[in-house]
Amino acid sequence: MAQLPRQQAIGTNIADRLLMSATASGPTYRATPPVEARRSAWLATLRQSAPGMLLVLPAVIFFVVLFIVPVGTMITFSFFLQTKTGDIGTTLTLANYARLASVDLYRTVLFTTIRVSLFTTIGTMILAYPVALVMVRGNQMVARVLAIIVIAPLLVNVVIRTYGWRVILTNSQNGVLNWLLTQLGIEPVRILYTEWAIVIGSIHVFLPLMVLPLAAALGKIDPYVEEAARTLGASSWEVFRKVTLPLSIPGLAVGSTLVFSLTSSSFVAPALLGGNFAKMLGTLVEEQIMSVFDWPFGAAIATVLIVIVLVINFAYIRLVERRFPTRATPVM
Length: 332
Description:
Helix content: over 70%
Strand content: under 5%
Radius of gyration: 34 Å
CATH topology of the domain at 103-323: MetI-like fold
Number of helices: 14
CATH class of the domain at 103-323: Mainly Alpha
Oligomer: single chain
Order of helices and strands: HHHHHHHHHHHHHH
CATH superfamily of the domain at 103-323: MetI-like
């Protein structure tokens, strides 16, 4: 028993020598600090994504130079006032926005813009669904001819098309519409220089932008799904309301946002078909900048227009997403 402590001491000395020998001859390992690990992972990710970033870089530069910078400058100008000498002041103020909200004329123009944009969007929806359905479900030759008819107006300048509607809707007896009504024994109507004239011209201009997304969405719907609904006793209206419409919501959302945004910011149709009796924000901005030379107030009007369009579009998409949560998100 007396030799036990001595044996333990000898074993301890041998273990210490073996550990010192292994430490002296073998490699030394140490844990990588978390900061260095994150840096290495970030560099590896950067090397992998560098080719894609280089490909996207020209588009990003184009977007920043030709959109972000001008829009930022416009929004900045909207918070300044123009002096009596024509210079732009340097004091930040909300006077331009207060003026836009307090004057009855400007409020009327704002509500007219929203109203015309909504009516144009609804009108294009009603007209686009039958056209898109025929393009997708109809005869192949008929679908091709109809596609050409829908796309062909895009090849003609919008000014020329709008002047064509001026000839058709002229309030005098020389107008095509009033001449036809007179031949039928109907009293002529006064449509030119009204909101309805802008709606009619805008529907003609922007209808392809509603038809094409709808046709793309309808083309992805399996025809056997609609046939199954008819087999179960659903009428044509019920098939459209409960099957076709919900499944085509992505195309409808894309087309609606395009038509509403472009109509609310349009200038040619309101200027040529609305004149001074049915102004919209686009014509008002042009007057303030090109005629009155009040750049800050024109910038404020344009900023309000952008905000209104964004808010209404986001609210509309949010409403559609809540109503159709699995199908509503548009893919641009």
